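Second opinion, please. Pick holes in both lines of this record:
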Amino acid sequence: MKDNFRRFFKGGLGQLTIPIIAILFLVGFNLVRDPSFFSIEITQNNNGNMVLAGNLISIINGASELAVLAMGMTLVTAACGGQDISVGAAAAIAGSAFVKILKVSPNITGVTVAAAFLFACVVAMIFGAFNGTLVSVFKIQPMIATLILYTCGRSIAYWINGGATPTVSSPIITAIGGFIPGIPVPTPVLIVITVAIIFVLVFHFTSLELFTQSVGINGSAARLNGINSTFIKLLSFIILGLCVAVAGTIGVSRLGLINHETLLLDIEMDAILAVAIGGNNLGGGKFKISGSIIGAYVIQMLTITLYAMKVPSTDVKAYKAIVIILLVVIGSPVIKSKFQKTVSRVKSNKQRVSMKGAE
């Protein structure tokens, strides 16, 4: 098990270089700009519980839904060589399904919440299977296949609750979206850790990681080796569906209501960027989920940094786009290749100089 955790977070300098450098740069920039930026304090929340607060907590807490979606998006990208652009809309559907079950009972209990979450998972998996079928069976490019749900998904979420935006008030829901009494760490952060551990266990006890990479690298060769590439691609979308349900549940629990129009709006683009920043090949094949998780926190740290610098909310996306373009270009195969050639050239020159000195 220890070896799997080590493999999960060990990136090989090549793949995790960009996200780690990005994190270090943002940390250094913020420490120079405001030495107290990462300070953590213990404060009392509205429910009277002592909790952790500060920009660092806001970063790791605010990126929770994105980190969960980035994990599922990584599998889809690796297996299919494309991305699912409907995860935001699908999360709205899952969130609406979650609220639909909660509103059936006058009193929201632990059993009700569990039933609502399971229902949301089933609904999200069905829509994930729909996308996966279009991609794996009908061979439609992932971005085109998921464009259907991207277009109509929020309308479906609207229909589930009859066009209303019902609120859900319960200590359990508040705890899921905020803090569990007696635990100062935000619950969404604990959920991200749990999902990451589940991925580690799945990769440890199954061959899913190997099969996914094999299908993504060369589907025909994988098929000749007995791997059902159609099933692996379909499974990756279904797993992403589970991640969508988790993210949708967190989003609803944070707000205490379902707003189909704004819930996790535009998060699909951030999820794709998190996968790219994490050093994963958007064309499929070899992947590292830990890189995508780091990529999610890079995006959230950049967002919090811009807000701390008093950048208007309308301009934040433009600044994020500039920084992300730089990160993606720096991490592109062309730049990496040139960098490696430069390093090799410098090493060979040093060897020549040392050899001449020895003579």
